[in-house]
Amino acid sequence: MPSTTSILQNLKNNYPQFDFKPSDTFYWSFSDKSIYYDKDNKNDPLFLLHELSHAILGHNSYSQDIQLLVMERQAWDKTIELAKDYNIQIAEELIQLNLDSYRDWLHNRSKCPKCKENGIQINDKKYKCLVCGNTWLVNEARTCALRRYNLIK
User: Which residues span the domain enclosing 125?
Assistant: First the structure.
């Protein structure tokens, strides 16, 4: 597999509408049209292609947590297409492991802190349990520990 460094210049040439910036992690920033790549992870261009996929697809924000999982699936589908252009193979297992982290995130956010059953999202960061009636707020928790805060009725 080619290194991140070896395909980076090709990506810069092929996608001049985006900036590629070194960082401590891979992510796409819609606000500054930049794809950040892990400068220390030079041997895995798959995540660089994945973040480029988010950029190409115009992923910006989501209002329901399930939409994030949908955007991740779309980005991996686009990554598969892009990988062919750069002669890179992607194992389906890698994709599913990555998607599992989002599935786990979604499952844990929706778990009622009171009765441990899964609830439904009723707005941006608020959930409600259909079993016990509890409501709770969640933090962003994509890059930090998940927190759930019971709301007192």
Answer: 112-151
